[in-house]
Amino acid sequence: MPLDLSDESQYDRARLRQWARGRARSAGVDRRDLLRLFAAGAAAGSLGLGAAGSAEAAAQGAAAAPGPGTAAAVAPPGIVKPLPPELFTVRGTNAETNFASLRGTGPLTPVDRFFVRNHTSTPRIEASGWRLNVWGDALAGGPVEFSYDRLRSLPAVERTLFVECAGNGRSFYSSQQGQQVTGTAWTLGAIGVARWRGARLSDVLRRAGVTRAAVDVLPRGLDDEVVTNGVNLGRVRRPLPVSKALDDVILAYEMNGEPLPPDHGGPVRVIVPSWIGISSVKWVGDIEVSAEPLYTPWNTDLYRFFGPGQPPQGSAPLTRQTLKSAFELEAGATLPVHRTRLLTGRSWSGAAPVHRVEVSTDGGARWQRARLHDAPRRGGWVRWSLPWTPRATGPAALLARATDATGRTQPATAVHNTQGYLFDAVVRHPVTVV
Ligand code: MTE
């Protein structure tokens, strides 16, 4: 029976087989280069790319051990907005949101504290000169161009959704599980939730004349090409199965009611609900609509599971985000004994709305249900709280674990993979009671 490549799970399995047999076209990168990188990635589990490209990757190194001299090698991050240390931790070309800075903010992450993940640096692109070129062999005619005004004239949709890096929480593979991983050493702040407004990608594809032959849809960013280990990987791009592209993907031009800021992909970015952040291509400049399967480094040697229990070519490309919880509190915070403190935090899941959050203040022996402050919603997060009155001085570990509507609860341990993706285990949040 012929495979239905518009079905997501069949798509993943089929692509994996085609890639292994060398049948898929590697869009824009020499296949030998990709295979070389791919072999290196599988063997050493290290491309350094999680930390962004080129020199910065070398400066960042493994998440487990930044190493001496790292600070001296760090270049300016190439991010336009201010990055005050109380709001962000700069990691190479990226800026992680300090979760404590979300305390007291609403359900949306304000732009001034929304994390930034850049492979290179933020380009400045004027909306007036911006064009989206839609092209490829699965269109009925030739390429079709959309200006900013034309995009804005299409029916608008608005949705509250998270963007979360696949490597969010990566540092806990090392610090909590003693496992080596490569890439940016995020704690839990490589996530933000915003109200995105834009046009449906499906409307754009239909107006461009997408045909039934379409299999993959490949948005590409206008930021600089990514160079790693001497190989130019080209511009950031990652194919989407046509089923997802025609389903709920947005071409966003507004974030929290304002024009999309430069660091978050302005004037226009892709937003792929519930999928790992790399799918949500910023500064989108063109979209290929292809009748044959497409491969790029971002769905071959990156953003798959590699390591024990995985095939040598890695798992199928990662798609949906996983389940996590975070306290809105500094790691290592000092709290006064016998004084009631309202512990607050957020939980989210790529699979289904989070409908239960439990908190432990004694390192995991006993759990109490936290109060939820938002209606559980898919693709977003819930804020929660629990009052705590510490009774004894000394170090303590706070834990929060979420359960989503699929019935899945955060596990005690995340399954290791060499690039440290999709960490989902309960995180031990250290505090000191004085
Ligand atoms: N798109 C382009 N063009 N270039 C990039 O470097 N980074 C991706 C994605 N889209 C990236 C991109 C990654 S890995 C993530 S997690 C999100 O953008 C981050 O979005 P943000 O910077 O708006 O938080």
Walk me through what this model shows:
With 434 residues, this protein is of the alpha+beta class. It has three domains: 226 residues, Oxidoreductase, molybdopterin-binding domain (Sulfite Oxidase, Chain A, domain 2); 59 residues, no CATH class; 111 residues, Sandwich (Immunoglobulin-like), CATH 2.60.40. It has a five-stranded mixed β-sheet with strand order 5-4-15-8-11. Strands 6, 7, 12, 13 and 14 form a five-stranded antiparallel β-sheet that branches. The protein is globular, with a radius of gyration of 21 Å. 50% of the residues are buried. It binds ligand MTE. Ligand MTE binds next to loops.
Q: What hetero molecules are bound to the protein chains?
A: ligand MTE
Give a count of the beta strands, DSSP E runs of length 2 or more. Answer: 25
Distance between the termini: 67 Å
Structural class: alpha+beta
Q: In this structure, how is the largest beta sheet organized?
A: 5 strands, mixed
Mean pLDDT: 88
Q: Please, what is the CATH homologous superfamily of the largest domain?
A: Oxidoreductase, molybdopterin-binding domain
CATH T-level topology of the largest domain = Sulfite Oxidase, Chain A, domain 2
Number of helices: 8
Helix content: 10-25%
Low-confidence stretches: 1-8, 37-73
Spatial order of the strands forming the largest sheet: 5-4-15-8-11
